[in-house]
Amino acid sequence: NAGVMQNPRHLVRRRGQEARLRCSPMKGHSHVYWYRQLPEEGLKFMVYLQKENIIDESGMPKERFSAEFPKEGPSILRIQQVVRGDSAAYFCASSPPGQAGRQFFGPGTRLTVL
Amino acid sequence: GIQVEQSPPDLILQEGANSTLRCNFSDSVNNLQWFHQNPWGQLINLFYIPSGTKQNGRLSATTVATERYSLLYISSSQTTDSGVYFCAVKQGGKLIFGQGTELSVKP
């Protein structure tokens, strides 16, 4: 049973470009979460999604960031017009139905903004 | 919201030594997880432990939910145990992480 998959593992963007991060949950998991880890800090919650629904986006910056989890395909975290402060590791997690507290994490995408 | 505090922030051990990491949380929780972030940045699930004690090899964890703390024990530490250890508690659908304990095990 493959774990949570994220790609790309490393992403370099110049200021003003768009970044798209993908996450495929574990098989049988219907809940996806995105977290951000700034350098030398802990992980901070960004958004919680189920298929075609955003359940909690209280941790998402109000501008430039969006997330989706379509009926088919991976979840996407999109950052428009990236700035240097967006440089971080972005982790995706998934959980089985009814077990939101038991989350399994992907390897992360390290975003570097030049 | 729930506050999660971990101690100590840093820990240096000689290989073979034992250690105890602590996680305090400010409100009642019905689940808690421990993770190890290795030097390559990967987050590895160690324990899902809302209450009680669990053991996995040289690692064990105890959560006393009524007193709002959890402990992670590492026995006979190895250099591969180095990294950052996080605890996280559930609030709504999200996990609230502590700031971590950075462990360095010297050969």
Distance N to C terminus of chain A:
37 Å
Per DSSP E runs of 2 or more residues, the count of β-strands of chain B stands at: 11
Q: Could you tell me which chain pair has the largest interface and how many residues each side has?
A: A-B, 25 and 22 residues
Shape descriptor of chain A: globular
Q: Unreliable stretches of chain B, pLDDT < 50, 5 or more residues?
A: none
Name the descriptors.
heterodimer, A: 114 residues, mainly beta, seven-stranded mixed β-sheet, four-stranded antiparallel β-sheet, 0% helix, globular, B: 107 residues, six-stranded mixed β-sheet, five-stranded antiparallel β-sheet, 11 strands
Notes on the protein architecture:
The complex is a heterodimer of chains A (114) and B (107). Chain A contains no helices and 11 strands. In chain A, strands 2, 4, 5, 6, 9, 10 and 11 form a 7-stranded mixed β-sheet that branches. Chain A has a 4-stranded antiparallel β-sheet with strand order 1-3-8-7, with no helix packed on it. The mean pLDDT of chain A is 93. Chain A has 114 residues and is mainly β. In chain B, the strands form 2 sheets. In chain B, strands 2, 4, 5, 9, 10 and 11 form a 6-stranded mixed β-sheet that branches. Chain B has a 5-stranded antiparallel β-sheet with strand order 1-3-8-7-6, with no helix packed on it. Chain B has no helices and 11 strands. Classes of the chains: A mainly beta (114), B mainly beta (107). The interface between A and B is medium-sized, with 25 and 22 residues.
